[in-house]
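Database export, one record per block. Field names are fixed; values are copied verbatim from the stored entry.
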Amino acid sequence: MILFLKLIIGHFLCDYPLQGDFLAAAKNHNKPIPGVPWYQALAAHSAIQAGMVWLVTGRLWLAGVEFALHAFTDYMKSDGRISFNADQALHLACKAAYVAILAAL
């Protein structure tokens, strides 16, 4: 339970204050900021999230999973395929899955 709480706190830190308005806007491929490649902004945000997973769990491979899943989820949100609330629910479900995987190892 402690690991899950650390991952949730880390997620909210990375998705709100550590993301900021610039990355939040720049990562949207449907409304890119002129001169800013959206994929670089999405990768930067996903790397921040992945770094937090690595710091909390100590597992680099899990950070790689987080990078890919976070980028995919945020891309779907930018596409309008999922809502903001679904985006957040999927991110938190990933954190729960990481805890379950680590508990099984």
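Remark 1: Residues 2-104 form one domain.
Remark 2: The two ends are 16 Å apart (CA to CA).
End of record.
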